[in-house]
Amino acid sequence: MAPQDQEKSAQSPCPKGRFFLTGYYFITDSSLSIKGNISDVRGALQAKVGVVQYRSKRASTLKMYEEAKALKSLCQGT
Fold first, then answer.
1. At a CB cut-off of 8 Å and minimum separation 6, what does 34 contact?
2. How much is the pTM?
3. Alpha carbon distance 78, 67 (integer Å)
4. Contact (CB, 8 A) for 70 and 44
5. Residue 28 CB-density burial (10 A; 0-12 exposed, 13-18 middle, 19+ buried)
6. Contact 23/49 with Cβ under 8 angstroms?
7. Alpha-carbon torsion 15, 16, 17, 20, what sign?
8. Which of 22, 36, 48, 59 has its CA 20 to 30 A from that of 15?
9. Using alpha carbons only, what angle is made at residue 69 by residues 77 and 71, rounded to the nearest 5 degrees?
10. 47-63: pLDDT as tens digits
11. What letter does residue 5 receive in the DSSP assignment?
12. What does 19-68 look like in DSSP terms, one character per residue?
C-alpha cells in the first residue's frame, strides 16, 4: 500500500467503496430451520437485525425466487 493510501485508510474506518456494518447480520439456513425461512427472518427482524442474507442451496429456482420475493416484502415492511 502506498504511503498516501495508508494515510487515507487511517483517517477513515472504511476503505473507499465499502460500508461499515454495525449490529447483527442474519443468514438464512433452511437445513437448520424448523419453521422455515420466512418465520426465521420475521423473528430476526423483530430482534432488530441490520442485514438479512438469503441462502437456499437445495430449493428449485422457482422456489428460491418466490421465497426471496416474500422475504424482500417482509424486510421492507410491505
1. none
2. 0.71
3. 15
4. no
5. buried
6. yes
7. positive
8. 48
9. 50
10. 999 999 999 989 999 99
11. H
12. ----S-EEE--TTT-SS-HHHHHHHHHHTT-SEEE---SSS-HHHHHHHH
